[in-house]
From TrEMBL, chain A:
Its main location: membrane. It is a multi-pass membrane protein. It comes from the Bacteria. GO terms for cellular component: plasma membrane. Keywords: Cell membrane, Membrane, Transmembrane, Transmembrane helix. InterPro entries: ABC_transp_permease. The keyword Transmembrane applies. PANTHER family: ABC TRANSPORTER PERMEASE PROTEIN YPHD-RELATED-RELATED. This is Inositol transport system permease protein. It is found in: Cell membrane. The chain crosses the membrane at residues 24-43, 55-76, 117-140, 147-164, 184-201, 231-249, 261-279, 286-305, 311-330.
UniProtKB/TrEMBL annotation, chain B:
It comes from Gemmobacter aquatilis. This is Fructose transport system ATP-binding protein. GO terms for molecular function: ATP binding; ATP hydrolysis activity. The lineage of its organism: Bacteria, Pseudomonadati, Pseudomonadota, Alphaproteobacteria, Rhodobacterales. Keywords: ATP-binding, Nucleotide-binding. SMART domains: AAA (SM00382).
Amino acid sequence: MTGITAAGLTGASAHRKRPAELNVLLGLIAIIAVFELLGWLLVGQSFLLNKQRLMIIILQVSIVGIISVGVTQVIITGGIDLSSGSVVGATAMIAMSFAQASTGPAPVYAGLTDLPVLVPVAVGLGMGALAGVVNGSLIAYTKIPPFIATLGMMVAARGISKWYTNGKPVSFPTDSYAMIGKGIMPVVIFALIALLFHLALKYTLYGKHTYAIGSNTEAARISGIKVERHIVLVYAIAGLLAGLAAIVVSSKNLTAQAGMGMMYELDAIAMAVIGGVSLSGGRGSIIGTVLGALIFGVIISGFTFLRIDAYYQEMIKGVIIVVAVVADVARQRKRSRS
Amino acid sequence: MSDIILETRGLTKRYGGVHALTDANFVLRKGEHIAVVGDNGAGKSTFVRQITAVEQRSAGQVFFDGQEVNFTGPLEARESGIETVFQNLALADDLDVPSNLYLGREIIKFPLGPFSILDRKAMRERTLRALEATAVKIPNVDNTIRNMSGGQRQCVAIARAAAFASKLIIMDEPTAALGVQETAQVENIIRGLKDRGVPLILISHNLRQVFDLMDRIVVFRRGRIVASLHKDETDGNDIVSYITGVKGGSDASYA
């Protein structure tokens, strides 16, 4: 049998789109170029050719970066997670209370000091995952919008972090716990987590189903994908990564406080969106999010480098987030028209 | 063993007080291609939805491949060998062609529960073979479905059904939104299925297509089957008379 060569069927390949990640990379390069130029003009030194600055750029985004890897997956399913910052606060407090050294003053659990590092790590990851399971179950089984479910968790988890010690910080971790977030460890952990979930999204059933659900939930269901179970899993992973970020940040700072992780959720979402992850689901990648995180880091460092006031930094950060979402919406409209 | 692949007896569906489908007696033989025609709201899609268990019937029996079946959902119907090309396509726009073909039945290279590693190469190769077998031409299967024309998307949906249907394919107006050339390609695929002996139920408004491709024509009117005719014993005008109710009383019943 011979197939019909339909001329009309070959047109689509011609306007194949540039991958979104490439655009983000070009954006990153452009932003670096601008800072480099302004650096020579205004400050009289190179922005990029400074090892210390490069390290800071990556270091300051790596903790929120860990969260954004989880948030990216949630957004790909068509959801959102507003709770990650508060979950960081609550899990940091709880994990730290199991990581205290006997040498410190007034530990939370006087009988439970000097525990092996595995205990606070397991507690932190477990609490984070639990918060994620609650989020995911609410969304998958009660069908309430992800925005509302995770908003509830955001408020509740912040409450837990304040209630846990009546607002008092938890400090003086054991040496081994303090190692987790020391030096460049946050960067290493961020890189490993990003690599792991890049592979999971690209090469496993998990990734395929995550994209399928975000792309067309009904098609996924008809095709036999257990949509509800998968959504719970994705939110559980996002919660687990928030728990991991809590461990790293509390270890790095040698203390946990009730206000920890404030606004991390928005920074994490912003990194994903700047990295080309579509808020309407189905599209985006960990590579994009990592590039988004780097853009974030470069902008913050760049402003500090140019000695621009911190207030302006926040304002401009807000503008960048809105621009990224506008670009995403414009892309959608262009696609649905064609 | 008989040569009947699908039979419905007294198939009935009511939505509250509305009788969408009444006492449908229908027989499909192995290798047979049957057209289901009728006006909008005549019960064609309702009929198909009861067979594929997208909805649960109010009364009646369905026999498939020699035994009575009570599918609880479309997935079960699919697992027993009934593939459906839905009107709304049921494709994931952001995935490429192999991912769509194998959605929900991915080939696994290394089992790790939900994190099982996909055999992307095997899925891609088998996709190319499936497209070839159905004479579907897609310039680049690695493109996402979103970037494809309506005809290409429809071809992907049909190729998916054709690749996996072991026993029966149901198509709900597959060419309704397509251009001339794209329609020709879909019709070519249907001819290929006929050659391969895969039974098919085609819902269509296009009588030219129905007479070109199908063996038998079943006419629905007001939720009832009013005619079941071999294409050689009827013609377009005859079918239209049944569709519009000029011919065939509402009490007609065909086995």
